[in-house]
Fold this protein.
Amino acid sequence: MSDPAFRNLPPVHVLIARPELQASIGVRGRDAVLRAVRIVLDRVRETIRDDQATAPTEDALTLRVLEFLSGDRPRLRPVINATGILLHTGLGRAPLAEPAAEAVDRVVRGYCNLEFDLETGSRGHRTEGVSDLVVRLTGAEAATVVNNNAAATILALRTMAFGREVLVSRGQLVEIGGSFRLPEIFEVSGARLREVGTTNKTRLSDYERAIGPDSAALLRVHPSNFRVVGFTESVPIAELAMLARSRGLVTIDDLGSGSLGPGSPPGVSGEPTVAEGLSAGADLVLFSGDKLLGGPQCGILVGRKDAICRVSSDPLMRALRVDKMTLAALEATLWLALDPAQAARHIPLWRFLTTPLATLHDRANRLASRIAAGSKLSVDVVESNAFLGGGSVPIDPIPTAAVRLGPPWTPELGSEHALARALRVGDPAVVPRIHEGCVLLDLRAITLDQDESLADAVLRLVARRPYGR
Ligand SMILES: *Cc1c(COP(=O)(O)O)cnc(C)c1O
């Protein structure tokens, strides 16, 4: 084994001292990187022995170790969201508040009183704690929680109208997030969809005329991810509820996003609130726990006691119920929501919405000068638009500041797509926005304590050549 190719291989301690791998140690830990170096070196020795290959350069070996590390990690991992989409469905919608994350941490390491009454020592109800809080927050008679708002809609339709008709305006037959399509939701629920009115105009008389012996409910769906402008007309929920009651029907209000009140969250205006739906007379109001509330993914049902009771005792509830992690996170988020000042301070979504533009500008400037100092990229700061997203509130842009990278792209820097890809597969993963041939790092959905690792992630890539494909 005196092959010179073997002698040209750097020893482990030399490779591990490379700055790129030292940076990886900071993120992944020394053991993981050491293991990757050993495995890569073993594989290289094998190809030298079997194929008489020559020894790769130190640069090439380092790249192989980095590649190995990027394949050798959990599929689900944290991401720095530089897209400017606050509720990015692909990136897990709302980040949890610190107290919510701590609450999850507290209950998952051991046992908890999920369905156990500590007072009496007998069986308890899993959603009792959160239901009480939701009732306090909304003024509803009763409340319960399921896995998401889609589940809430299916359960509401099923328990209120199985095998019977539910009337919906043609202007509200929404698709949300690609897989929530109202007609398909109806199919799985067992209730029959009866369309009334037209795409842009639906009047109370349309509902009145369509009500028949098979009708069980009127459903209002909040078109939360689009707006119809121009000549439009829809029936206010109060009028729908009044009509429903006079004909012995049930009113279901699918709010989707679910604002708990004006300024909840701050900066989001014109959204129908849960309390409005209830005081208008809806029997059931459905909303999401993670869209505007900024809690864990779940669907919250509030309304009349007997309606919630029917929902809770449906056999399907068993399949759609939430687990202890969701309950812990939701309970902590609801506690925060009881005090809007606390909510604005702790719930990341609310904080993102209230960060002054000037603050984002300052941070962007600091980031930009750090990146500019360490790279040949053309770097500046631009004003742009961020969006709430996630099928929550249609189109209102939120002013934001972003660090803009490139062009012109040198051959070694590839393209905006190559840089974006390298950022996405890096450690930590950064998902930027590509805009007019540039890579934008939008600060609206990035916390202050992520700025440093964001700058490091970019600098590491820009110093490493070549990257991307
Ligand atoms: C978002 C939304 C849903 C689906 O909620 P998920 O929590 O994503 O399942 C249903 N209805 C409306 C009106 C929505 O906006």
